[in-house]
Amino acid sequence: MNRNGPLALIFTALFLMFLLAPLLVVCAVAFTSQGYLSLPTEGLSLRWFRAIGDNPEFVRAFKDSLLLGTVSSTFAVLVAVPAALAIARHRFFGREAMQALFLSPLMVPHIVLGIAFLRFFTMIGLGGTFAGLVLSHVIIILPFALRLILAASTGMDRAVENAAASLGASSWTCFRRVTLPLILPGVASGWVLAFINSFDEVTMTVFIASPETTTLPVRLFLYIQDNIDPLVAAVSTVLIFLTVAAMLVLDRLYGLERLLVGRGRE
C-alpha cells in the first residue's frame, strides 16, 4: 500500500486550512458582542443570533430560497433526465445543437441574463412573481444537472435494460426499475448541485426579485449596502451549521457515498 509522505500530508493540511479558514473566521465573528465586525476577544455572545429573530425578513427570505431551490432544481432534473438519455443513447440530426442549447446558460454572464429576464418577464406579466423566479432559475441551473446526469447515462450498460425488456418489462417499468436506479447517483448529484447554485444565486436574481419574492442572498446583499455589523456573519453561520447537520443526517440515514457515488456501505 502506498502511503503519503510527510510533505504530502503537510500540503494537504495547509490546503484544508486554506479552505476552512474563511468559514471559521465567519463563524467566530458571529459570536462577537460588539456592534461591528470583530473577533470575540471579550467573550462569546449570542446577541447577533437573537437579532436574526428580530429581523423576520431574513427568515422569510430563507424560506423563499429553500422553496425556490427545491422547486427549480426538481424541474431542472425532470428536464435533464430525458434530455441526457436522448443525447447519450441516440444519434440524430441536431443532437450537438440541442446539447449546446441546454449548456448555453453557462456561457452567458448572469448579469446579462438578469437584464434579459427582467425585460422578458415584464412583457409577459411575470415580473416580480415566484413563477418567473422558478423559470429563470431552472434555465441557469439546468446545465449543472444535465452534465452529471449525462455522465451517468453515458457510462450505463444497456444490456441490463435489454434483459428486462426481453423478460416482458414495459418501457415505463424498465425505466423505473432498471434505468433510474442505475443513473440515480448522477440524478442525485445533479439535483444537489442545481439546488446549491439556485440557493446561492444573487447576480441574476437581484434583477427579477421583488419585495414579496426576495431570496436570502439578495436580502443579505441589500442589507450589507446600508449596514456593516455581524448580523450577516450570524446568518451565514446558521446556514453553515444547517448544511453540516443536513449532510450528517443524510449520511446517517442513507449514506452520502451510496447516494452520490452509487456504492453501498462496506
Automatic annotation (TrEMBL):
Q: Where is the ABC transmembrane type-1 domain?
A: 62-250
Q: Where in the cell is it found?
A: Cell inner membrane; Cell membrane
The top of its lineage is: Bacteria, Pseudomonadati, Pseudomonadota, Alphaproteobacteria, Rhodospirillales
Annotated membrane topology is: Multi-pass membrane protein
Q: What is this protein called?
A: Spermidine/putrescine transport system permease protein
- Pfam families for this protein: BPD_transp_1
Report if keyword Cell membrane is assigned.
yes
Q: Which family does it belong to?
A: Belongs to the binding-protein-dependent transport system permease family.
Q: Which of UniProt's keywords are assigned here?
A: Cell inner membrane, Cell membrane, Membrane, Transmembrane, Transmembrane helix, Transport
InterPro entries (alphabetical): MetI-like (IPR000515), MetI-like_sf (IPR035906)
Species of origin reads Azospirillum picis
- Transmembrane region positions? 66-88, 100-124, 130-150, 178-196, 231-250
